[in-house]
Structures are given as structure tokens and as C-alpha cells.
Amino acid sequence: MINRSSRDEVPPGPGLGDTGAGEDFTVLFTRHADELHRYLARWVPMAADDLVADVFVSAIHSRTHFDATRGTARAWLFGIATNLLHTHLRGRRREREAYARLAPGHESDSHEGRVVDSVDAEVKARQFAVAVQQLKQRDRDVLLLTSWAGLDTTEVAQALDIPVGTVRSRLHRVRQQLRTACPAVVLESNDD
Fold first, then answer.
1. Tens digits of per-residue pLDDT, 2-30?
2. What is the 3-state secondary structure of the chain?
């Protein structure tokens, strides 16, 4: 069993803002890199390695902004990861739009689209993915941080710098919207 309190606390030492923070970041990397990679790889498997590296580069550059009284280092790192993921996805979307402008009228169905249409279970998965994509970004962030990253509502609040009550209300709203959009998909409810 993992001792959650020791896993989440900021490593001992001079602190993230001091000159001796190198050892602290080695410990943070050891503790959280795999978990961050799993979270990011669900969205962008081919870019997850680079994004994890970017999370720690960004964390090192912004270490003076970390405030241990506001949350755990884990939540802080997931907040950075979520912001970098948004930036990456925006870049990919812009790239696709640019390619679409270069080849007007040429839309190719992906292999995934053909497979999804042929299998009922995969149709449900696609319907669910579309419903998730249509959520407001702030609601989607709460959903992904709780379901994919496994953060509890307190950690999500810390990562996104919002009150815990806001996290809970967004999560409730997301579940309602997904139940309406995808009635055939069973959603688990594991409220804190």
C-alpha cells in the first residue's frame, strides 16, 4: 500500500525556490513522472515523453511560484501538465486546419472511424468521446484529472487553482451532460 501523504508532500530539503532544488526535482521526477506520463499518454501517446519532460522543465523554471501551503507538488505538476497538454492540442488543431486549407475538399476517414462504425461497442466509445470533446474545457479538465489522473477533488482544486466546491459542481454537471449525451454508456459515480 502506498503511503499517500509521503508520496504527495514536497520533498525535504532547501525548498523548490532555493538553489539546492536539484535534489528536490530528482525526487519529484522519481515519484511522479510515470503517473504524469500515463495521464498525458491517454491524450497524446506519441508526445507524452516530450510533454513529461516539458512539465519538469516548466516546473524548474517556475519553482519560485510553488506554494506548499496551497497544495501538493503532485497537484502542482498535474496543473502544469494540463496546461501544456492544452497548448499541445491547440497546436495540433491548428496544424490540421492548415493542412485542410491546403487540400480543400479532401476529407479522409481514419482507420479508427471505419472500425468504430463497424462495431457497436466502439460506436459507444466514439459517441462518448464526442460528448467529452463537446464539454467546456474547464469541465473536461476536471473530468480528466479525476478519471484519468486519479486525483481527488481536493487535488484537482489545487491543480486548477479553484475551490473544491467548484470542482464538485463541475464534476456533477459533467456527469449529467454525459448521461444525457450517451444514455447507453454507464457512468460510475465515485463522489468523494
1. 344 444 444 433 345 444 455 688 899 99
2. CCCHHHHHCCCCCCCCCCCCHHHHHHHHHHHHHHHHHHHHHCCCCCCHHHHHHHHHHHHHHCHHHCCCCCCCHHHHHHHHHHHHHHHHHHHHHHHHHHHHHHCCCCCCCCHHHHHHHHCHHHHHHHHHHHHHHCCCHHHHHHHHHHHCCCCCHHHHHHHHCCCHHHHHHHHHHHHHHHHHHCCCCCCCCCCC
